[in-house]
Amino acid sequence: MWKDTLEKFNKYPSQQKVIRKLLQLGLKVGENNKVYCNDVEINISSLAKSIDTDRRVVISTINNILSDETLKKLFTNIKPAGPLLSNISEELGLGVIEIEGNGEKVGILSKVTDILAKENISIRQAYVDDPELSNIPHMTIITSKPVVGTVIPSLLKIDGVSKVSMY
Q1: Which of 4, 18, 109, 139 is in Cβ range 3.0-4.6 Å of 61 for a Cys bridge?
Q2: What pTM, to 2 d.p., does this model score?
Q3: Is the dihedral of CA 118, 120, 122, 128 positive or negative?
Q4: Mean pLDDT computed over 120-140
């Protein structure tokens, strides 16, 4: 899915970094040549600094996006996924399960939810890295309560799962 988008920038590795950052954060490009997180304008210089590049690279990337109809449709309509609760789970009394594995493997999320349902644990949030954007895809599951460690062996038996962490 994102492979074709990134390939359009093969000749411009710095612009590829901008594309990756926009996708990772769900940042939108406005037709007014500005970058937004929902309706909040993102400072171009700050975005450039976050990926160790110059603001002119970000501006060039925006211009390239807006001059290509396919990219324009993607980047003028993308939205961020919302807050990830894992960093504040303890304060909220929630549990966190992080799973590392093969992001191309079908059914991992389904099997995780089945295991948790059998333990009578509800899921508040599930976030999965896109395997085309992440070298090592992670799945982060936020549960309604902390999860006991006895669930780990069951999760590790899922085909495609290589590592499980809980906190």
Answers
A1: 18
A2: 0.76
A3: negative
A4: 88
